[in-house]
Amino acid sequence: MAVFNIKKREIECKIVYYGPGRCGKTTNLEYIFKSHKKQIDGEMVSINTEGDRTLFFDFLPLELGKIKGCDVRVQLFTVPGQVQYSSTRKLVLKGVDGIVFVADSMEVRREKNMLSLKDLQHNLKEYNMNIFKIPLVLQYNKRDLAEEGIPIMSIEKMEKDLNRQIKVPSFPGSAVKGDGIGKSLQSCLQLTLQYLNKQLNWTK
Ligand SMILES: Nc1nc2c(ncn2[C@@H]2O[C@H](COP(=O)(O)OP(=O)(O)OP(=O)(O)O)[C@@H](O)[C@H]2O)c(=O)[nH]1
Ligand SMILES: [Mg+2]
Predict the structure, then answer these.
(1) Does the C-beta of 139 come closer than 6 Å to ligand 1?
(2) I need a labelling partner for 165 at 20 to 30 A (CA). Which of 44, 87, 101, 171 fits?
(3) Is 150 within the bounds of a domain?
(4) Tens digits of per-residue pLDDT, 116-151?
């Protein structure tokens, strides 16, 4: 849940990177950490990992500066994507203001993407939130694998699989190269701040 401090004119909101295991959520945050050093007050924190697998969550605080005269702070989180960490995913999602759903472009991950989106819908429902209303963007990650001859899905196919019903902004990306990572975050932040703005009258 976003925290508004009207007296101090501060907003703090929470963005969660969601998606199946190994789709590249942690790599997104690592890239943002490297490329937005100036806006980061502190370190990226990865809680409980096993190799490169997230077992609890990653956390990265961002300072966006002033928007409409308010200081905006954003907390970025990733969930653990592996199926068995369902309850942790739900816990990390608590109080979410906006979501970047990272889908894996590899052909072999097609089913996992769709299951993870369903899992997101289910977990949001548990918190009385609606996947059709919450600020949400899709990122089709690992587009670079095509260059290595690894079979990846077309954007059209991924749109059909994942975005036919929810119809949200979507972006191709490569978290290892950094392509599309800023765009996905920016779009999600824009939607989130618009959404929060509607809930408050900042002209006071
Ligand atoms: N080629 C390529 N590899 C990627 C990309 N993004 C992530 N990877 C690789 O995919 C593997 C998994 O990435 P992570 O960022 O750890 O995935 P995750 O979604 O955090 O996985 P969990 O923590 O298990 O949920 C790592 O070896 C990454 O280097 C990408 O855009 N392109
Ligand atoms: Mg991870």
Answers:
(1) no
(2) 87
(3) yes
(4) 999 999 999 999 999 999 999 999 999 999 999 999
